[in-house]
Amino acid sequence: MSNVRLPSCLLCVCLLIGSLAHADETIDFVRDVRPILSNHCYRCHGPDEEKLEAGLRLDTPPPVQAEKSSSAIIPGHPDTSEVVLRVKHADPELRMPPVEAGRALTPAEIATLESWIEQGARYEQHWAFRPVRRPEVPGSPSQSAWVRNPIDAFVLQKLEALRITPAPEADRETLLRRVSLDLLGLPPTLEEIEAFLADTSPQAYEQMVDRLLASPHYGERWGRHWLDQARYADTNGYTIDSERSIWPYRDWVIQALNEDKSFAEFTIEQLAGDLLPNPTRDQLIATGFHRNTLVNQEGGTDAEQFRNEAVVDRVNTTGAVWLGLTVGCAQCHNHKYDPLTLREYYQLFAFFNSGQDVNQVTPTLSLPSPEQQAQLAALDSRLRKVREEFKASEQQQQSAEPSGSASTFWETPEGPSVHSEAGAGFEALEDRSWLVSGNNGDSDTYTITLATRLERITAVKLETLTHASLPKQGPGRAGNGNFVLNEIELRTGQETANWTQSRVDHSQSGYPVEHAIDGKPETGWAINVSQGSMNVNRSALFLCKPMAVPAQGGVTLSLVFGDKPAGYNIGRFRISLSDRPADELLPGEVEKSHYEKTIAELEAERKKLQASIASTMIMRDLPHPRETRVLIRGDFLRPADLVIPGTPAMLNPLEPAHDDIPLNRLDLARWLVDRENPLTARVFVNRAWSHYFPRGLVETENDFGMQGSLPTHPELLDWLSAEFMESGWSMKGLHRMIVTSATYRQSSLARPELEEIDPDNKLLARQSRLRVDAEIVRDLGLSVSGLLHPRIGGPSVYPPQPDGVYDFTQRRANWPTSTGPDRYRRGMYTFFMRSAPHPLLTTFDTPGLSTTCTSRTRSNTPLQALTLANDAAMQEVYRAFGARLRERSASDEDRIRHGYRLCFTRLPDDEEFALAQSYLDRLRRDFAGSPEEARLVMADPDAKPEVASESATWVMLARLLMNLDEFITRE
Amino acid sequence: MTLSTAAPSSSIKDMPDPVPSLGDDWNSRHQARRHFLRGSGLSLGSLALQWQLSREQASAAPAGQPASPMPHHAPRAKSVIFLFMAGGPSQLDLFNDKPVLRAHHGQAPPAKALEGKRFAFLKGTETLLASPRTFGRYGACGQEISDLLPFHRRIVDDVCWLNGMHTDVFNHGPAKLFVNTGSPQPGRPSMGSWLTYGLGSEADDLPGFVVLQAGPRGPRAGSSLWSSGFLPTTHQGVPFRNGSEPILNLSSPQGLTRSREVEFIQAVNDLNRRRHAVVGDPEISTRVAAYEMAFRMQSSAPVLMDLSQEPKSVLDLYGATPGIPSFASSCLLARRMVERGVRFVQVYHTNWDHHGGPTENLEVHLPQVCREVDQASAALVQDLKQRGLLDETIVVWGGEFGRTPMGEIRDNTGRDHHIDAYTMWVAGGGFRPGIIHGVSDELGLAVEKQPVHVHDLQATLLHQLGLNHEKLTFRFQGRDFRLTDVHGKVVHEIVS
Predict the structure, then answer these.
(1) pLDDT tens, A558-578?
(2) Does A383 touch chain B (CB under 8 A)?
(3) How far apart are CA A309 and CA A325, in angstroms?
(4) Which residues of A touch B274 (CB under 8 A)?
(5) pTM for the whole thing?
(6) Which residues of chain B are within 8 Å of residue A845 when distances are taken between CB atoms?
(7) For B153-184, how does the pLDDT look when each residue is reduced to its tens digit (9 = 90+)?
(8) Among A280, A199, A316, A296, which Cα is nearest to A240's?
(9) Residue among A707, A68, A371 nearest B473 (CA)
(10) Out of 3.40.50, 3.10.450, 1.20.120, 2.60.120, which CATH number does the structure's domain A401-580 have?
(11) Residues B261, B264, B268, B273, CA torsion sign
């Protein structure tokens, strides 16, 4: 057994450093052959049937009956196999691949192909599409003492094969800082350092790890990694990029991780929490995952186009995050490398195609606190009571009116003619109201000719009425049943009415009824409500200076509807006229206003309360799914064949429980976390790994397809994946497994002797130094200086940022710089505006978050130096840290050592101490002679000269320590 | 007091011979990088910075750099200045006189011509709108220019006129992304990022890709227009603000003099070098170099931004006044940047979105923005030419789309977004001067001959810089992405 293992491991290493298999080795199709075929041949001889040349496919074994294929590859006979003959052909015209493709095979690659055919040309399924089976943990002959858990056994197996010994364990200070930064994103506190260094028990490290995993800051650190993938941000994106509220989703992620919710549930709730039976509030919040897509609020956009973009993003993000596949490649054509067809892409699309959101923020979920809930209930009950009283008083008044008085007060003219400018149609109903149908113009004017018997007119009553034929029953023709009446005009002969007063039983906030008589066509009366239904009858009363009705008649009333918003016309209405003086018409109205006033006040209060209540964007499906069609070249204006929801055939099957019930997102989510899904666990485990080491076990963490790289430790990946699934998808369990391994605990010092054989440390013969993420740069500064306010969650905050960030945005956004504790919150709570993120974040590689980010880059630039050294927010940190050092002790030595301890967990060596002391001495001399500048450094113009000088000296020492590479590096 | 500066650039030549064909082999690339860093030691200074990987790019390919040797062919140009008229300038009021449109003013456009077309705001009832401008034909090439751009007459024969431009998307944000990144969605690298990725920068102490802004507000879509997308963030455009602090956090905090900062950088780097000696991580050397370059930028960037050093004749040519932010200052700054080796400068001017209405109409506001850009746009071409820089610098002028022949009659007149036919111009860098390429139909609805799609223009720009747009790729999520997506062809007729 072991002598078989040895050469195959050697072979892996050879591959790692760029050479290729030798002919005398056993050829592995997946490892050796498929990459060659995929790189050089699949573009024309791969899974994309539409681009297939000469009918020859090389990605699957040839069908027995296919003569052409069978002559292409003749197992055992490379010399007569057409494939070999063509790649070696002397005539460049006949040689494959064609010259213009620029993908010629190297001699070594040709040799590999020949050996494979020689050895029988066996095809195997792509490694990542095979089910995950738990491999056996290798026994370790010589260094078993090093092995702390199965991870180490797999790693050591490779190292031993190459006679490489692992690096020694890192010293305890390094280990403590490393694991704190990795699990919490915070450096260890002084107390934690002292306690850990003093704890000599053999389980000290493991117990410390357990404490860290139980910290609520764990959810923040690992939540931020997940939020990158969820493309979580606080604005809508594109050009307007206005604020949205979805931070409760961010807090849900933190909470779920802290509870160690199983990754299976974590998945199901985010992808389909709304489809669970009786979903809880938290399960709905979780669906914010796919509401993090962009909303384009620019004028003149086609909402359907951007709805389509959002669905595409949901498909591609799901593919990248859970499957590690580049499904987006199949949006326009069959995948060139992986067996994923255009049709299958749109089957995935169909799962996400029925959301209620159409390029908009809604649907949202209101999240009142218990106190707010109680306040709301109290307000609602008061409102209900006042409304009842109001209604009762109205009824009382009506019954108090002498019988028949209605007809003496009001006349509802019969048989008038009505005309619409936009060509709407009108139907006279029995109750003398008019029902509008036909064209609903962007704008319109209804002109009603009234045949009145009155001799003069003092008032007009306009009743807007509901009807089953109207949207949401009306009374308006807008999609929600609303309308905006911009102006009402009454003319008798040559005379136009002068309106004096108006009354109404309800008007929408910002759209009072007075707007209909103010002569301004851009303002108007509308009827939306903040609570309850707006789809009820409404009545408006308009009083004018008395107007004589000409003998020949000729009274016309115009209802004017502008085009902003478009199509907000009235759907059913009734007009009545009166000749009574205002004081006869209004007593009831006065009573009304009293109630009205109370109701308005209560509603205003309610609205204010409502505005203070948090809300979050959630996913909701339409009652009936949208039809999904394949889109030709991905163009939403070119729909083709109808498809139903389904998953790619290359993966574990998913069948609907009943033929007549289509699959939905819940089925998809459950399928992703099925034990037989070959990708989800591997992809997740690999990404977790990539946060602890420079890269994943599969380097192309977002491409597990044929064009992706092969795992460096395939058996380790499978063992961890099987363990992850079978232990109940516990994320904390996985982290614990990794950080307690000997592999993780190695020193990160360079090993020059391994530079040649393993320059990138793929064999894991040591740990690596990694620069911390942008948010952690800030967290380190806040934590070490003592400024950090550790509150978890809540609305995003506005730490100071340099002036000029919005010089380059369309919208000069408001940045209400936080004061008080919110000024010093962890970096992950910084408000994230997609079109102009906080510069500290972008400078240190936080992604733009318009699309999913599964792996951040780590750059190292002069802008980072400028940010750390000069940013105003950092100066606050330096002042606080300087003060903290001075409080520590009176001795320079103590202070410097203390500074090292807080920043780096370790103490300085002699040379470092000497360098720091010498800088300190120079600073002290320098500032002693320039107290004015010391005051500037302290931002304290009143400080006594000697205090300012000494303080500034220590601020600058703090600045020095926090600008060192080690400060922002996990060692 | 001077700072010990970085190693001489000859140290890059000390590195071992590169692997002959790096192909896709990530490992070899990294290996090369390690040797490179070790060989040149701690004093290698800014050479390790990706901003700086430039002249010797073809022989070294550190992390985040393309594997295949670049440029792909001999370049004609070294740098690009893109004068971006954000909002979409009206070609029908600036560059294309349409007598037939004038004759049919007020009439409905032919229904057939509108079939299948999509507009942002038009409702279908709008009528043809004649331009009230007077046009003349200028130069040997006879390009039409309206009275709004008198200074353009001076450069008419230095410019390659593209009267047959067309694009795919009709909303501002997506269309601006499309011109800059080749895709209407955010997330792809901008052209400047592709160029510094492919060619590196030749600037010693400036970023290779700089963004300037003039006008009342920034361009719509913000930083995604100069984002490096999936390329390493080192390649993202660096916005330079007007004033004494062009780069965020460039100035030292109050009370810290230059000499104090020398002491600071030395102390930082001494301690970093000490750490490097212990842990042996080449990233620390890069960090040392980054602090040195940051320090140099603190003095070089304000000098760059200080236009008072320019002679009066140059200031007058542009119409720039030192200390006053304007499009003219931005154009002059752009020239000073390419002189110093900056690869790509985006200059945004807002706002060109003339729909009609009180604040954005063709009567008042188009003339106003024209006055703001006309003189300086022409001056930039003239100035580069005088200095012999126009041969190696490409100047591009245009917006994300044009405007419709149909009018939008709001309070005043305006035009909607039009993607099917509009005008841009390109000067220098081997683009043929004094030629007119492309003609739109008599109403300006569509291109009649010699169309140039945005992807074609991108392909041609890359071509002039020595890059094959089909080979300048980056593997991301399993796919080789390019600036031109899967489209675009080099327009050979417009370059020499």
Answers:
(1) 999 998 888 899 999 999 898
(2) no
(3) 19
(4) 909, 911-912, 915
(5) 0.75
(6) 233
(7) 999 999 999 999 999 988 888 899 999 999 98
(8) A296
(9) A707
(10) 2.60.120
(11) positive
